[in-house]
Amino acid sequence: MARCGACSKVIACVGCLSLIGAIVIFAWPIYSLGFQTPTFAVEGGTVFKLDLTQHMSEKNCSFLLLRTGTRDEDPCRSANVSVTPPGIAGLSGLEWTSIDKLPACQVDVMFWMEQFHPRLEFLGTLVPISTTYTDDAPRVGEYHVQSEEPLWALNQCDNPLYAYFPLGAGGALLIFFVVAAILGTAAVLACCCALLMCCCCGQSEGYKY
Predict the structure, then answer these.
(1) For residue range 3-34, what is the model confidence (pLDDT) as tens digits?
(2) What would the 3-class secondary structure string for the chain be?
């Protein structure tokens, strides 16, 4: 019977640990995004303030807004929401869109949103007003929101998997999947190498009389 050396055992252990790490890295973002309720900045508010900080402006983060809705309702239906930006609104021109509904409202609800009471749907993302005519940087400060229906808001910087949602979320998940694939491949190679070393060791011992 072939006996594995200490080196091959160490390689096998490293391979097993790498495989476990790959599984965790692959499963964690899927669980966090699909099954775990995020931390909300606003819960069920109709009149509230969203404080866009300098840090959020530098990171291009904003607030993702959610609304209640049943499965029979169109998630992209109209919403009567008014947003008052900090400072002078006229500085950004007349074409400022305060909430970008597409493509967020077209994204299927997550499992945790189905289980949440009340059931939630994506409404859209707060679009910060530009600082001035010549400066397109997001204007920091408090955005006053008034809505006829209760809204939930989450800070994208505080919930990294929702950063640049929904388009950016795919990129974030892709990074996790690539890292998991690399670790998984390394784990398989390590296990194969350990097995090969065991076989070679066994054959070399078999030739000794």
Answers:
(1) 556 666 676 677 777 777 777 767 777 788 88
(2) CCCCCHHHHHHHHHHHHHHHHHHHHHHHHHHHHHCCCCCCCEEEEEEEEEEECHHHHHCCCCEEEEEECCCCCCCCCCCCEEEECCCCHHHHCCCCCCEECCCHHHCCCCHHHHHCCCCEEEEEEECCCECCCCCCCECCEEEEEEEEEEEEEEECCCCHHHCCCCHHHHHHHHHHHHHHHHHHHHHHHHHHHHHHHHHHHHHHHHCCC
